Amino acid sequence: MIRFYFHPTPNPAKVALLLEETGLEYELVPVDTSKGEQHVPAFRAINPNGKVPAIVDTDGPGGHEVRLFDSNAILLYLAEKTGQFLGAPQDRPELLSWLFYIASGLGPFSGQAVHFQRVAPDLGYAVNRYRREAERHYEVLDAHLGGRGFIVGDDYTIVDMAAWGWIERARFVLPGSDDPLAPYPNIKAWFDRIDERPAAQRARSVGEHHAFKKVNDEETKRALFPSNYPREA
Predict the structure, then answer these.
(1) Which of 75, 84, 161, 166 is most buried by a 10 A CB count?
(2) Closest by alpha carbon to 128, among 182, 103, 120, 180?
């Protein structure tokens, strides 16, 4: 059994997609990050970094219970556990390269672009920096996808799932257009191909019956951005 600690944001969405694709049995554990539930000791025991997603696999290696945190580590672990969505053996170097490209580039710059365009005070330099870097990462991926059905090799893999989680939020990363993927036709065609999958539709509805907090008040800001506030004595 997989216990899946979830909030409806891009990184948990990747893991939701893989779980739905593999058919692994899982228990959803909502973590309302706007209420600060990611900082409580019980969750910090699972992810010391206080972020979602995280999982606990009650049937880990050797039958032992194990924890995992960081979405891309979880994708790789679950793909290896099930033997699915890892692509062809000869494509392993490409799979790792693009998985870490998303983990260290596309994802973080997209997240910062959202933050500075939607949450932070008007900081022109930061907005320009992160928006442009997000666009650059989109351009790299769009060029790579030219003539390709999937990001790595000929198969649908965890790399596609990792990217889907963020590209699904393009309207927040690249606001200002009704069709933010229009400048990236190869990404758009790839995204539509992934998004048509039944598992993608199920992944999008994960957690929809839980009443996550949506008010962006002082409690939310302190919960999501604790480093912006002095530490309590």
Answers:
(1) 161
(2) 120
CA–CA gap between residue 143 and residue 145 (Å, rounded): 5
Nearest in space to 226 (alpha carbons), one of 44, 41, 13, 34 = 34
Residue pLDDT, tens place only, 46-57: 999 999 999 999
Distance of CA 75 to the CA centre of its chain: 10
pLDDT greater than 80 at residue 232 = no
Q: Which residues contact 42 (CB under 8 A, 6 or more apart)?
A: none
Distances (CA, A) of 132 to 113, 124, 173: 9, 12, 10
CA-CA-CA-CA dihedral for 122, 53, 152, 112, to nearest 10: 10
Euclidean distance between CA atoms 8 and 130, whole angstroms: 22
Answer for the pair 52, 38: CB distance below 8 angstroms, yes or no.
yes
Q: Where are the alpha helices (DSSP H) in 38-153?
A: 41-44, 71-82, 92-101, 107-118, 124-144
Query: What SS3 state is found at 168?
Result: coil
Dihedral (CA of 144, 151, 87, 4) sign: positive
Distances (CA, A) of 204 to 3, 12, 84: 18, 10, 21
What's this model's pTM, rounded to 2 decimal places? Answer: 0.94
Distance CA 6, CA 52 (A): 6
Which tens digit of pLDDT belongs to each residue from 56-115?
999 999 999 999 999 999 999 999 999 999 999 999 999 999 999 999 999 999 999 999
Whether residue 196 has pLDDT greater than 60: yes
